[in-house]
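Appendix B, record 7
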Amino acid sequence: MNNAELLSELSNQERDIQFTQFNSHLAFQIGSYVVKKGMRESLPIAVDITVGSRCLFHFSFDGASMDNERWIERKRNSVLRFNHSSYYMGRLLEKEGKSMNERFMIKEEEYAFHGGCFPIIIKNTGVIGTMTISGLTQQEDHALVVEALKEYLM
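Structure tokens (predicted):
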């Protein structure tokens, strides 16, 4: 799949994965889904679900590192600023052939355009939060977030 096709697919995911409501109970169910999968597959990941500035779910497996926590923070900053998945933003810059500093005048110390953070979107409202996974390849982080959100889409 070329970059233009991937950007289109990622945009479609953001259009399709939108909730009518989202609360702490749903965050717990989605986060628990990832934890159970992570346990079955021995994934060295950290998972975070945040709405506004409130963390609704966070779990870090043995094997995950403090670096994963920093990646979560930087990916979350990216999604909250641009209202697109962190994977989408990285592919967009790749297509444009620019760095984040060149394109948006922001620093990699604060933002990460690598897969693994997806906006929590409420239909007819917009982005209210994020779900982030860190610890796998960026494609795998992104895919696991999308899988989990789709599992509980309501």
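Remarks on this record: Strands lie at 46-51, 54-60, 117-122, 126-134. Residues 25 and 56 are 9 Å apart (CA to CA).
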